Automatic annotation (TrEMBL):
TM region(s), chain numbering: none
Domain Activator of Hsp90 ATPase AHSA1-like N-terminal: 60-196
Species in which this protein is naturally found: Brassica campestris (Field mustard)
Molecular function via GO: ATPase activator activity; protein-folding chaperone binding
Coiled coil ranges: none
InterPro entries xref list: Aha1 (IPR036338), AHSA1-like_N (IPR015310)
Entry protein name: Activator of Hsp90 ATPase AHSA1-like N-terminal domain-containing protein
Superkingdom of origin organism: Eukaryota
Family: Belongs to the AHA1 family.
SUPFAM superfamilies xref list: Activator of Hsp90 ATPase, Aha1
Length: 197
């Protein structure tokens, strides 16, 4: 019988540590309060990211649709270039494949993208008293944010069978001059991407 009493005290005592008895100097338990609209809306909402992400932890926003449309618009407005023996223009953005995103990390905004481009070009060159119409493409391999200084363009001509080797070489060199205006448009795109919220 004595043993039963000891076991009961042990059981009773083992929970006392976690559920302490209130003493006279302890703070009173909190009372429930009704919240108003002012209490619910965050008074100092973060400038970046969503309202739910006030701590500024990782948040990613996909901007691919906007970026693809904007790249096509900007590159379509490059216009034409005049060369010593001809002129050419970018008349279509044939391929614009990639992705763009905005990431908020620790309340800092970071943007990035990766794209591949193919731009259709057409032009006319005078060669030996004759005007030759030429079509082709400017292919820009994969490039990313901050890599515009390293851009390279690959020129492909579609009607090259009837062109002499000398004329093909001249046309390719001329078309590579589109690289600088394209780089400027991509720089404008990067700035617009950075300014997005």
């Amino acid at each position: 019988m004595e043993r039963e009493g000891e076991e009961e005290k042990k059981k009773e005592g083992s929970y006392r540590y976690w559920v302490r008895e209130a003493t006279s100097d302890a703070a009173p338990p909190p009372l429930p309060q009704k919240l108003t609209n002012n209490d619910v809306v965050a008074p100092n909402a973060p400038a970046l990211g969503s309202l739910w992400n006030q701590a500024g932890t990782w948040e990613e926003k996909n901007l691919t649709k906007w970026a693809t449309d904007r790249l096509k618009e900007l590159l379509g407005s490059v216009g034409s270039l005049q060369f010593s023996s001809g002129k050419a223009e970018i008349f279509d953005v044939n391929r614009c494949v990639g992705d763009a995103f905005l990431v908020t990390v620790r309340n800092k905004k970071r943007v990035g993208y990766t794209y591949e481009l193919s731009l259709k070009v057409q032009g006319e060159w005078s060669f030996e008293e004759d005007m030759k119409k030429v079509k082709g493409s400017l292919d820009i391999a994969e490039f990313s944010f901050g890599e515009l200084d390293d851009l390279e363009v690959d020129v492909k001509l579609t009607d090259e069978k009837e062109l002499s080797q000398q004329l093909k070489q001249r046309i390719r060199l001329d078309l590579k001059q589109f690289l600088e205006p394209v780089r400027l448009k991509l720089g404008q795109f990067e700035q617009e991407l950075k300014d997005r919220q």
